[in-house]
């Protein structure tokens, strides 16, 4: 049987060596042994303390330090591979990403319990030391770094959020509600993103919120990322966000939207004026009808007053009455004569 050992210490009559299994052996001192040498020994090379039994010479098999270092490195790599296969690695996955752009620019990765796994500040407004300090904290515990307690300046706080898991509206609302309670200010604008937005923003070295806002304005989809505000209110808040207004694409998108809004406003005004004109025309028609009615009224009165044609008849009636009176007078004279 042979042993692979490493020389630990050299004594006067023997050497102490460690075998692969951790056992410490005493071996016979032969040749030019040095501490750290790795050699192979047989049973007869073990030191028993009896000089007469010791062979005259033993040839040691030396291993260089370079070879020893290589062996150690390979052994360490094998142990890592074995531990990865045997012991399951338990790590917290990224659950959501939240970014804040106000006085500071900070983006954090959160696990399912809203604990910060990683933090980054692309513009350097948060120091590396602070980024390391908030790692492992709950997002509420990093309020100072997120700029939650900063005095209100009238500028919009841009907050982007997105889940790594797609199509989970309930969890999206839960995360947004948590952020609203954390910041609790009307100056905050919350923009909802997607898993793809997270990846693209990281490629562009841009915070999630800035990326979502720029994309939504350029593609005219601002209503899809902000679901609790009117379009006009959102655009007004965008204008109060300094980091956004530094972006040429955002300014051009806002100018384009303003021109379209003015054009729509003018068109609506013209429509209202046209409707008013139609109302005036209707009144004129009514007046015309009414005037015609009034014009027809005197004609009817004139027809009623045309009774002079009956005047001769009335005169005839008067003549008839005179005739009757004369007849009565004649009758009375006849009676008088008879009486006489």
From TrEMBL:
Q: Which residues cross the membrane?
A: 67-87
Keyword field contains Disulfide bond? no
According to the entry, every stretch annotated as the RsgI N-terminal anti-sigma domain falls at 3-50
InterPro entries the UniProt entry points to:
Anti-sigma_RsgI_N
Record field: compositional bias (Acidic residues): 274-288, 318-340
Renumbered residue ranges of the record's region Disordered = 256-340
Q: Which Pfam families does this entry report, sorted A to Z? A: RsgI_N (PF12791)
Q: Which domain of life is it from?
A: Bacteria
Q: Which keywords are on file for this protein? A: Membrane, Transmembrane, Transmembrane helix
Which protein are we looking at?
Anti-sigma factor domain-containing protein
Q: Which organism is it from?
A: Hominibacterium faecale
């Amino acid at each position: 049987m042979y042993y692979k050992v490493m020389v630990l210490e050299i004594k006067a009559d023997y050497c102490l060596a460690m075998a692969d299994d951790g056992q410490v052996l005493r071996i016979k001192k032969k040749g030019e042994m040095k501490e750290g040498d790795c050699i192979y020994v047989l049973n007869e090379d073990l030191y028993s303390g009896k000089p007469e039994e010791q062979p005259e010479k033993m040839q040691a098999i030396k291993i260089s330090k370079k070879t020893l270092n290589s062996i150690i490195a390979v052994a360490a790599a094998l142990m890592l591979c074995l531990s990865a296969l045997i012991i399951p690695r338990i790590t917290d996955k990224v659950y959501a990403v939240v970014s804040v752009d106000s006085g500071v620019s900070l983006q954090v990765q959160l696990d399912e319990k809203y604990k910060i796994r990683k933090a980054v500040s692309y513009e350097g407004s948060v120091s590396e030391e602070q980024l390391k300090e908030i790692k492992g904290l709950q997002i509420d515990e990093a309020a100072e770094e997120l700029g939650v307690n900063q005095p209100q300046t009238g500028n919009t706080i841009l907050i982007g959020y997105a889940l790594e898991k797609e199509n989970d509206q309930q969890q999206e609302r839960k995360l947004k509600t948590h952020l609203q309670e954390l910041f609790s200010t009307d100056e905050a604008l919350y923009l909802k993103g997607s898993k793809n937005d997270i990846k693209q923003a990281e490629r562009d070295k841009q915070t999630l919120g800035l990326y979502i806002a720029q994309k939504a304005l350029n593609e005219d989809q601002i209503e899809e990322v902000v679901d609790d505000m009117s379009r006009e209110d959102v655009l007004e808040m965008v204008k109060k966000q300094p980091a956004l207004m530094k972006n040429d694409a955002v300014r051009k998108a806002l100018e384009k939207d303003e021109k379209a809004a003015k054009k729509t406003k003018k068109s609506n005004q013209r429509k209202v004026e046209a409707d008013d004109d139609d109302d005036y025309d209707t009144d004129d028609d009514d007046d015309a009808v009414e005037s015609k009615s009034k014009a027809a009224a005197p004609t009817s009165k004139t027809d009623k007053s045309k009774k002079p044609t009956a005047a001769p008849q009335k005169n005839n009636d008067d003549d008839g009455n005179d005739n009757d009176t004369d007849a009565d007078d004649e009758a009375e004279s006849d009676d008088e004569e008879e009486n006489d």
